[in-house]
């Protein structure tokens, strides 16, 4: 498998995950009562859809058509921690997930030989992702009155622990494809 | 549920020489062979602990069962006692039950579950039925103990509104000294019960209180199944005529995203909160309506 194949697969995986995020947030945007959070969740929904479009355009510009993947990173969350039971849990899982996305994109930006078109796409998406983390954090703070500060904190801690396991599992499952993002793996690959 | 309920557990029996004269009279009437004396003494120690913490007199013989402010339960090795530190005019009885280990046989359901409860249980996945049955057993036992007029009652005389819920309300379907009301007909003076259940590593613990028939002056708002069906129909584009209380949710929602959407939508609409345990226990649309009803009642208490 060539590096280009791995790149194509990873960018397609990003695209698939953004599509799943848009579909999920579209549903949540339909259910949230009118107010500031409704506007923010609807904005988030459009961001995720736009990101999927950015990755589609990026892949097309690199003469690499997107692979039609069914799997997405979010699927593994649902498998590992169950369905979010209420709006607070939806926001908590979103906060953990968005932080993971930022971390992943940052790591990708550090990958050696990164194509400028990929860099441009990641940097554009990162602007939105930072806002996502900020508005979700504020929303969770607002929810402490209704759900209890301890319960909110415990939920975030539970989802954070699950996220670390999920990411480790993802690396193990797709290590061959995304190993080039791991600096240690890159050093080994470059050694004579 | 009053905020001040105290629970105490104990796995060590009280020494017989520590008994008060009143306790000794009860103890001496127990059969000396078998575990009865040991479990009774362990339950007394648990009750003394809870009484001491509540500031009430610690002589347990002063509290005949069923009681308005104390209740005890025990397994082979563990006892639990519940005490209300301060009397509340609305509360007429308190009950607690703990069960660990062995699950009841599904065939036993007909002896202590009402018809609607048995129909709910039948819709629960087979592998989850033993736990659901044990949980409901503890609820029924706690409610039974909370009913101070339970002399001729059996567990089957009580019915919970939402069998899926870890908390909710229950009623006695056969009021003391009366014939069974016709289906759908409630006695105007029937006792209301409130209960909560906690999942333990090997079983369940339930506590219940009985409320005076006059404790609530305003009629309780209930969630109408028709409203639930209408909303589900609009959310997932299924004809409302196809929806009944027995409709299984798993057969209705095509994927987990839809399930989350439905769950969040109802919580937003009815201003209630579900948790993971609630979702695991939701099997039918009837469960959903009952859970909403129960949560809204809790919220309004």
Succession of helices and strands of chain A:
HHHHHHH
Question: How would you sum up the major sheet of chain A?
Answer: none
Give the low-confidence spans of chain B: 179-186
Helical region count of chain B? 10
Physical arrangement of strands within the biggest beta sheet of chain B: 4-8-7-6-5
Percent range for helical residues of chain A? over 70%
Low-confidence stretches of chain A: 183-192
Rg measurement of chain B, Å: 21 Å
Spell out the helices and strands of chain B N to C. EHHEEEHHHEEEEHHHHH
- Strand % of chain B is 15-25%
Shape of chain A: globular
Silhouette of chain B: elongated
DSSP summary, beta strand count of chain A:
0
Q: Using CB atoms under 8 Å apart, which protein chain pair has the greatest interface?
A: A-B, 20 and 18 residues
Secondary structure class of chain A reads: mainly alpha
Number of beta-strand segments of chain B? 8
Q: What is the alpha-carbon Rg of chain A in Å?
A: 17 Å
Estimate what percentage of residues of chain A fall within beta strands.
under 5%
* Terminal-residue CA separation of chain A: 20 Å
Major β-sheet annotation of chain B: 5 strands, antiparallel
Q: State the end-to-end CA separation of chain B.
A: 8 Å
List keywords for this structure.
heterodimer; A: 192 residues; mainly alpha; 0% strand; globular; disordered C terminus; B: 301 residues; alpha+beta; five-stranded antiparallel sheet; three-stranded antiparallel sheet; 10 helices; 8 strands; 37% helix
């Amino acid at each position: 498998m060539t590096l280009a194949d791995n790149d194509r697969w990873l960018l397609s995986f990003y695209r698939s995950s953004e599509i799943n995020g848009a579909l999920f947030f579209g549903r949540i945007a339909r259910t949230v009562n009118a107010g500031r959070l409704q506007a923010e969740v609807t904005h988030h929904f459009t961001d995720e859809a736009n990101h999927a479009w950015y990755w589609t355009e990026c892949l097309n510009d690199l003469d690499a058509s997107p692979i039609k993947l069914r799997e997405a990173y979010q699927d593994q969350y649902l498998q590992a921690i169950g369905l979010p039971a209420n709006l607070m849990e939806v926001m908590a899982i979103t906060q953990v997930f968005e932080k993971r996305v930022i971390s992943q994109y940052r790591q990708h930006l550090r990958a050696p030989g990164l194509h400028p078109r990929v860099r441009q796409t990641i940097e554009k998406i990162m602007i939105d992702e930072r806002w996502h983390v900020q508005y979700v954090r504020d929303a969770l703070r607002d929810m402490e009155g209704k759900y209890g500060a301890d319960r909110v904190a415990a939920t975030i801690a539970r989802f954070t622990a699950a996220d670390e396991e999920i990411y480790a599992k993802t690396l193990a499952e797709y290590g061959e494809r995304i190993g080039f993002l791991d600096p240690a793996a890159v050093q080994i690959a470059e050694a004579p | 549920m009053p905020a001040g309920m105290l629970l105490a557990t104990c796995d060590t029996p009280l020494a017989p020489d520590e008994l008060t004269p009143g306790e000794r009279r009860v103890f001496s009437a127990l059969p000396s062979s078998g575990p009865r004396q040991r479990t009774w003494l362990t339950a007394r120690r648990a009750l003394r602990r809870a009484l001491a913490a509540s500031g009430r007199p610690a002589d347990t013989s002063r509290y005949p069962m069923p009681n308005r402010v104390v209740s005890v339960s025990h397994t082979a090795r563990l006892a639990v006692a519940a005490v209300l530190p301060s009397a509340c005019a609305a509360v007429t009885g308190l009950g607690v039950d703990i069960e660990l280990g062995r699950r009841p046989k599904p065939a036993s359901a007909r002896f202590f579950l009402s018809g609607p409860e048995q129909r709910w249980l039948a819709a629960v996945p087979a592998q989850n039925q033993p736990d659901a049955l044990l949980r409901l057993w503890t609820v029924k036992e706690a409610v039974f103990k909370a009913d101070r007029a339970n002399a001729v009652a059996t567990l089957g005389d009580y019915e919970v509104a939402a069998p899926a819920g870890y908390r909710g309300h229950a009623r006695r379907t056969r009021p003391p000294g009366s014939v069974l009301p016709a289906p759908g007909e409630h006695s105007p003076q029937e006792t209301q019960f409130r209960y909560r259940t906690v999942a333990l590593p090997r079983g369940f613990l339930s506590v219940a209180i009985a409320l005076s028939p006059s404790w609530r002056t305003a009629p309780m708002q209930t969630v109408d199944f028709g409203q639930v069906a209408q909303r589900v129909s609009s959310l997932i584009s299924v004809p409302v005529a196809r929806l009944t209380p027995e409709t299984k949710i798993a057969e209705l929602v095509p994927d987990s995203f839809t399930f989350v959407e439905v769950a969040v939508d109802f919580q937003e609409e009815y201003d209630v909160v579900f948790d993971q345990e609630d979702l695991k226990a939701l099997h039918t649309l009837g469960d959903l309506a009952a859970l909403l009803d129960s949560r809204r009642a809790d919220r309004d208490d």
